[in-house]
Amino acid sequence: MPFRTVLLDTDDVLYIHPKPDRHLQDYLAAYDLQPRHPKVVQKALKAAHFDVLHGRISRQDYYDAILTFHGLPQQALPYGRSVLLADAAAIQPIAGAVETLLELRDSGIAIAIAANTEHPTDDLVTWLEDAGFPRDLWWMVLTSCEIGLTKPDPAFFKVALQAADISTDEMLYVGRDFYELSLVGEQGIMPVAFQPDNPENIGGSSIIHSYEELYQLVLG
User: Which of 19, 43, 66, 148 has its CA 20 to 30 A from that of 51?
Assistant: First the structure.
């Protein structure tokens, strides 16, 4: 059965952050502070990150926790939130992504986003539009913070399938994480690993290295 919907992850699939945390680093430097290592921040704020992805706490509260962990004083938090948002919005499309997804859409394929993120749909779509992805490209955008579910929970993908009114074998999911992809495959959805720098086939997923290969996989 031909695919009717392509569901895509966001970070390192649709876009990259060419200068991660650049605005935060500059802001911390103004207070004579050094940025903490991302893995240290991730470990310290694991519970808060889980909660914000599921919409249990606000993005503002999560950002305040990040800024405070870096050592910023209370009065620096309001502007600090805008700094973190600026870093989140500073994205660059993966080569060929815009053109290929438009071609797929014009060929009748529904293009959708599935993101574990603290950012609401409107912000995400606006940043993508600013980066060159037309706003009307997206048939559907699912963000974990808004639906209260995260990938690879089967319930997350059930929402996508019900919204699209299609069967599992009519949907293809493009992601980066092999563990997530393996669980997606167990649900009957075809998992595709976007690995431009990794030629190995790991975890039973199909591997693509470019958007040209995605086009061939979907329509070839």
Answer: 19
**In 3D, which of 176, 178, 190, 156 has the Cα closest to residue 6?**
190
Q: What are 74-110's pLDDT values in tens digits?
A: 999 999 999 999 999 999 999 999 999 999 999 999 9
CB half-sphere exposure, 22, CA atoms < 13 A: 10
Evaluate whether 149 touches 155 at the Cβ level (below 8 Å). yes
Phi, psi of 207 (to 5 degrees): -110, 135
Asked if residues 4 and 169 have their Cβ atoms less than 8 Å apart, the reply is no
User: 47 Cβ partners below 8 Å, 6+ apart?
Assistant: none
Beta strand pairing call for 15-16 and 92-93: antiparallel
Which amino acid would we find at residue 217?
L
pTM: 0.92
CB 81 within 8 A of CB 111: no
Residue tagged 């500059």 (tokens): 26
